[in-house]
Design a protein that fits this description.
single chain; 251 residues; two-stranded antiparallel ribbon; 2% strand
Length: 251
């Protein structure tokens, strides 16, 4: 892809994480008390720290995961492998086309995502997954976060998505502040995962058209407005630009 060493390493790291998100196979668990992680495809037992070129920062140091347990290797069918192989080049191309800031945010969010769905505690998985959305959408304000997710969806889906996210928000707040556990956390994890995928796909498809993450997020905040409101704003902006250009010419 003609990338520099540091970018190549980020693409490699992104590749691993995007596989967790798009290719993950999930355990047949039907309640949040199952002691196994949700992910069947997940990180290994040993972790190492690497520099920006991908080399080990400390050759004699490593960390182990407290939640790791030995599991069978997941074999994919030939048709599934072919499907994955077909999709990945397009994903890599989109990721490489993003500016460095957006790539960094995506990588950071996906790192948290991987650790979240490797958790044996489904409540902790859910809380970490919510943090993933906060990172991707650059907001820790729940109402703003929900509005930005809703903006990604088609008009016919917006009402349901908003209601679903409002329910997830209430569940999160009650668990964080009161410790309520009356909802099966496994289901909430899967619901939240759907929105994480949607936001990641948004960044891969749209964010390359903007100079930085703030512009990409600002687009979501603007896109929520009705057409008439957008036309009025455009008219005002066009007028402001026209007047400024005239003033520049006078100078």
């Amino acid at each position: 892809m003609g990338l520099c060493e540091s970018t190549s390493f980020h693409v490699l790291e992104f590749t691993v994480n995007i596989l967790f998100l798009t290719v993950a196979v999930f355990r047949d668990t039907y309640n949040g008390n199952n002691p196994k992680p949700i992910n069947l495809v997940r990180a290994g037992e040993v972790f190492t720290l690497h520099d920006i070129k991908g080399e080990c920062a400390h050759s004699n140091s490593c960390w182990t995961s407290d939640n790791y347990d030995i599991t069978k290797i997941q074999a994919l069918s030939d048709s599934r492998k072919a499907e994955i192989k077909k999709k990945l080049p397009s994903i890599f191309k989109k990721f490489s086309g993003l500016n460095e800031g957006v790539r960094h945010v995506l990588q950071k969010a996906l790192n948290v995502y991987v650790t979240a769905f490797d958790e044996t505690d489904k409540h902790l998985c859910f809380l970490k997954a919510w943090i993933v959305l906060e990172i991707l959408l650059n907001s820790d304000r729940n109402d703003q976060l929900i509005q930005r997710v809703v903006s990604i969806y088609h008009e016919k889906d917006k009402v349901f998505v908003r209601q679903d996210l409002e329910c997830l928000k209430e569940y999160r707040n009650e668990y964080v502040h009161s410790g309520n556990q009356y909802v099966d956390p496994l289901i909430t994890c899967f619901r939240l995962q759907k929105y994480i995928r949607a936001v990641v796909n948004y960044h891969l498809r749209i964010s390359s058209q903007f100079e930085n993450l703030n512009e990409s997020i600002n687009f979501l905040d603007t896109y929520k407005l009705q057409k008439d409101t957008l036309r009025k704003k455009k008219r005002i902006l066009d007028m402001a630009l026209k007047i400024k250009e005239k003033n520049i010419q006078k100078v």
